[in-house]
Design goal:
binds adenosine-5'-diphosphate; alpha/beta
Length: 162
């Protein structure tokens, strides 16, 4: 059996927390598709193309990981690909309520779907893309929390917007 999973998210930008989840999932699944949400109007720092490029330069280097863009309903995307499992990361308790709601809604929309939650290494528990952006915007260092390419992209983006 080929066990495939979709890891959906905004990834604005990808952090070491996301990569930690992907590496853990590789021990359980044969193929991971990172599905990057392309939602116009969402207040994002990076374009869809930039978010995909950063993922390709990091997670995309791992075997059995592919990066794709997606829009619309996640369950439709899964159904089209014959994939039945959604992967999400769980950090603090605060993630739980939202994730629980989404997982049950997805199951209602497509009853074959299961959602799987993985917890990152403790050092990434308090890490989020928004916090990373805020720190870099204010001039802080995020070394060790995001891949090098992402750190560079963030510095460039904020230098341009200053
Ligand atoms: P979304 O807008 O869909 O929440 P994110 O890119 O913020 O997109 O997150 C995608 C997934 O990765 C979510 O399941 C989120 O909980 C998880 N995630 C984000 N940051 C971390 C982290 N530091 N450790 C573990 N999981 C994380």
């Amino acid at each position: 059996m080929n066990r495939e999973v979709v890891y959906p998210g905004t990834f604005d930008p990808v952090t070491n927390g996301h990569l930690d989840i992907i590496k853990r999932a590789l021990q359980m699944f044969d193929q991971i598709t990172v599905a990057v949400v392309d939602k116009p109007g969402k207040n994002l720092l990076f374009t869809t193309r930039e978010r995909i490029e950063m993922l390709q330069a990091t997670a995309g280097k791992l075997s059995n990981v592919k990066i794709e863009r997606f829009e619309g309903l996640l369950v439709d995307y899964l159904q089209q690909r014959n994939i039945f499992v959604i992967l999400r990361g769980l950090r603090a308790v605060s993630d739980f309520e939202y994730e629980f709601q989404i997982a049950l809604m997805n199951r209602k929309l497509y009853s074959n779907i299961e959602s799987v939650f993985l917890m990152p290494s403790q050092e990434y528990t308090y890490l989020s893309s928004s916090l990373i952006k805020e720190v870099v915007r204010l001039g802080g260092k995020v070394e060790g929390l995001v891949p090098g390419v992402v750190e560079e992209a963030l510095n460039k983006k904020f230098a341009l917007t200053k």
